Amino acid sequence: METEQTQKISKQERYESQERKRLVKKITIWAIAVIVIGGSGYGLYYLASQPEKPRPGETFSILGQTHIEVGATHPAYNSNPPTSGWHYVQPANWGVYQEELPDETLIHNLEHGGIWISYKDVDQETKSSIEAIGKRYPGSVVVTPRSANDTKVVLASWGRLEKLESFDETKIVDFIKANKNKSPEPLAR
Q1: Fewer Cβ in 10 A, N or C end of the chain?
Q2: Domain residue ranges of the chain, discontinuous segments joined by +
Q3: What spatial distance separates the first Cα and last Cα of the chain, rounded to whole Å?
Q4: pLDDT tens-digit profile of 39-48?
């Protein structure tokens, strides 16, 4: 009889021991899950609450994104070259051009998150250097000459301009990286 009782106690103790282990395991898993989820949430909150690093270039008020017919008249732009506003329905293909393109075409590229690098009165070496940068970003940059510029090199993105009196590769690349796809329709690669 005693052996039977001892076996019963042993079975009961084993059962209770297993139940305690299951409970400890469950509590451990839930605690780890809460820590991971809480830590992830805090990490996302921390990253989202960090102030945005100032982007290069001067900021201009957005004039909208109205499509107009080719050759249609429109109000004056608020920057030279323009960084937003009235533009043609069809953007330019990304890439390097040897001829000027209409501002109204290139604004559409800016609306799509692209960068427009225009130049005026630069030597062949500078022109080649600018074109090489444009070719490094084949789905994001348009390079054109532009006689209406008031500086030798101008970098434009949606609502931003950086004007340079001389070629500065670091400033150009920094502008591209910081301002690409900061637009209403970010499609640039």
Answers
A1: N
A2: 1-50, 58-179
A3: 82
A4: 888 878 777 7
